[in-house]
Amino acid sequence: MIQLQFINYLLDSKDYSIVELNNLDYKYFSDYINEFSFIKKHYEQYGNIPDKATFLNSFNDFEIIQVNENPQYLLQALIDDYNTRKLTESFNKVRKLLMEDDNVNKAIDEYKKIQEQLTSNVVMQPIDLITDKKRYEDYVARTMDFNKFYIKTGFKELDNAIGGFDREEELGIIVARTNYGKSWIALKCAVAAAQQGLKVGLYSGEMSERKVGYRFDTLVAHFNNGSLIHGNISVQNDYKRYIDDLPNNIKGSFKILTPLMINGPATVNALKMFIEREQLDILFVDQLSLIEDQRYGKSTPEKMSNISKDLKNLQVMERIPIIAVCQQNRTKNEDGSIDTTQIAQSDRIGQDATLVLFIDRPKNTELMKLIIGKSRDSGEVGKELSYHIELNTGKFTFIPENEEEQELTIDEEDLENRYESENTGGDVF
């Protein structure tokens, strides 16, 4: 019935934009393929939808009915009709395969394929920037409560440069070579979000929830990470008090998802379910190469391009920041600078991201540089922020720009006293 209603709506309204803007094609009109194809060809050839007389001349048995529903309802009902048909078709195939011997894997593959074919389009409603005043209202709201629109990163100096993570329009990428500390940086940002009272999600494609938890504790309370991992009994009493008090000291929540919890690597669809089930305010992904391409790209660049595109679409639809960790190529520009061309495996990642942070560790020392490789909302691209780091205790001490070349041979306590006295950041946690 909905297909009949929709075609009648097109004939009445003469509005073909609902078809073009939502990429509707014959697959949505299984019962009226010829009728829809006629309308489509007529529009492409003459620039308008045929009138009813022209249409009925070719389809004299077509039922003309009055349609009073709004286009939003008609589109959603049409999509629901399509999804129902595809699901029914797929489930019948899955059932048949499961009844056959040794076809369990084929049944699983069939089930996965259906996810690619389902759609969730909504009617596009463009905004007239000349008459729309909502952005001024948004501006006023930001002047009154900036934190309502941005999430602090856990690095005060980075927040000063970029404003923080945009709560609704951020796809951030943290890029570094192996063992440079990118997972630590992502987790530090995630801890900061939880401390701000947010519902934080982390997909850990490699580390178990136990090891991520120990890093979490190191960043929050500076427990020696090695002592937690190896079971040093000397910290047991302090650690027990910390664990007991943690729910009272952290305002938000911190949910972790690993491949073991979902019987394999996560797809972007799995991350979508994670966001919606836990009603997350921000999602961290460690790391992109450990996400499974649900569109089955043939090469690694194609797979990563698919993942990046799907992750971008997920961020846009869910309207929460997504921050992902990604590998860096070993090459640099001729002048030694770093930009988004150094992101490994796919150029698409840098194109889709709204924020790209590079991590550099000169000679793998305890000097770490955060380099802003891309920032859609600030003019600080290329800015470098230097920190003295002690990952085993979760300490990050900011080094002002005029001293970043100094030899890091002085002890940690001296560094903290010198830089914290200048109120330049110091330990965040």
Q: What would you note in describing this structure?
A:
The chain is α/β, with parallel strands linked by helices and 429 residues long. The protein has two domains: 2-117, DNAb Helicase, Chain A, CATH 1.10.860; 146-420, 3-Layer(aba) Sandwich (Rossmann fold), CATH 3.40.50.300. It is built from 16 helices and eleven strands. The strands form two sheets. The chain has a nine-stranded mixed sheet, with helices on both faces. Strands 1-2 form a two-stranded antiparallel ribbon. Helix 1 (2-13) packs antiparallel against helix 5 (71-99), helix 5 runs antiparallel to helix 6 and helix 13 runs parallel beside helix 14. It is elongated, with a radius of gyration of 27 Å. 30% of the residues are buried.
Count of spatially separate domains: 2
Mean pLDDT, as a whole number?
A: 85
Side by side, the strands of the main sheet go 5-4-6-7-3-8-9-10-11
Radius of gyration (Å): 27 Å
Biggest beta sheet summary: 9 strands, mixed
User: What share of the residues lie within helices?
Assistant: 40-55%
Specify the CATH homologous superfamily of the largest domain: P-loop containing nucleotide triphosphate hydrolases
What's the number of extended β-strand segments? 11
Q: What is CATH's topology name of the largest domain?
A: Rossmann fold
Strand content: 5-15%
Sum up the overall morphology in one term.
elongated
Structural class: alpha/beta
